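Subject: sequence -> C-alpha cells, single chain

Hey, anyone have a minute? Need the predicted structure for the following. Not urgent.
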Amino acid sequence: MLEETGIDLVQGEKARLIPVGSERSQERRATSAFLSTLSIVDEYAAAILGSLNVKIGSRSSLNCFTEVVLADEEGSKDRPDGLVVLKKGKTSWSALVEAKTGNAQLEPEQIQRYLTLAKKHKLDAVITISNQFAALPSHHPIKISKSLTRSVDLFHWSWTFLQTQAIFELEIEQQLDPEQRYILSEFSRFLDHPSTGVKSFDSMNSEWKEVCHAVKNGGRLLKTSEAVQNTIGSWHQEQRDVSLMLTRKLKTPVSQKLKKKHESDPSTRLKDDSSDFVEKQKLEATFKIPDAASDLIVTADLTRRTVSVGMELATPSDKKSTKARANWLLRQLQKSDSKLIHIVAVWPGRIRDTIVTLEALRKDPDCIQCENPGLVPVKFRPMLVCDMAGKFSGAKTFLEGMNNSVLEFYEDVGEHLRVWVPPAPKLPKQEEPEDVSTREF
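Reply:
Had a minute. Here:
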C-alpha cells in the first residue's frame, strides 16, 4: 500500500475507522476516524476535497494514512498526523495533515516546517484541522509567510465544518448507499461526543473585554493594534461558526457573504475589517441563506452594547401609501411575537430612516411615516435588537447572546418573509364591438 502512493514513505499506517490508542491520543483517534471515513464514503470525500477545488473522478482512488514518516526524516521530531493521496490516472494529488483537538492551537513554526517538508517531497498541500474557524479553507487562521505557500497550498478545516458536512450529506444529499450511510452517521456521532475534543467557537479573544471598555469610555482604538487585530480575527471565526450553525439548523448550505477581494485575500479582509471596526465601532456580518427573502445581516454595536439581526425587503410598488405597504409587511409577520422586533423604513433620497417597534406598527401602520407625508418607504428592514448590557463585554456571554439572537430572529421573522413579486402584466380589455344589424333600404 505504501508503494502505491508514489511517495517515498518510510512509515505510515492505513487510517482506521476504529483506531486504538491511549487516553492521551485524542487527536490521533479523531484524525484516523476522519481520514478513514474520507477514504470510504465517496460523496463525503467529494464534498470535503471539493472545498479545496480538488475533484474526485469516477476512476480516482483515495488512500489515507496516519502517523507518517517520509524518507530521510526518520530523525525528525515532527511526525504529520496524516497523509491524503488521491490518484487520478497518471496524475496524483497529495497533502500532509496536521490536527489539533480541544483547546490545542496550531503552531506557526510547526506549520512552516510541514510546508517545507511537503515542498521537499513534492507534495501539493498541507491541511490543518482544529477547533479554530476560517471563512474558507484557503483562509488560514495562522499567519504564514507567503513565500512558503508559493509551491505548496495551505488549507484549513475546522472539526465543526467536517461534522456539519457529514450531517448535510446524511440529511440533505441522501445519495449514500446503506453501508456508507452507516459509516458516515457513526463518524458524525463520534464527533458529537465531548471526549473527541470537538467544539464550536465559544469565546472571543482575551482582549475583547478590554476593547469593549475602551469604546465605552471613549478611548481610541488603533486598527494595527494586537487587541483590534485579534478581535477581528475572533469575529471572523464567529461568522464561520454562525454559518455552520445555520447550515445544521436549516439543513441548507448557509455561507458568509464576502467581497470578491476578501475571498481571495484574507489579509486584506483582516486589514479592511479592522479599519471599518475602528471607524464605526461595530462588528458586521452578512449571511446568504438559499431561498430566503434576503441576506441575513448581523451587527454588534460596541457603543450601544446591542446585537441586531435583520433582513431587508423592497416594498411593493403597487401599494401607493405607507399604510398599505406597512400592512403588506404586517401580514407576513402575523406569527411574530418577540418584543425585540423593530421595523426600519428606508425612504427615497436623503430622508433619514424611521424605526418603530413591531408592536407599535400593528397598532398604527402610519406611525412609521417620515416627516414628508407625500413619500412612501422603498424598503423595510425588520430586525431584532437585543440590548445585552453588561453581558456584551463577556467573551463567552457575547457569543451566546449573538447566536441566540440569530436563531430567534430567523425563527420569529426571517423564515416568514417573502419577496414582493410584481403582478403579471394584463392585456387591455377590448371593448365589445357595436351590434350592427342589417338595414333595409
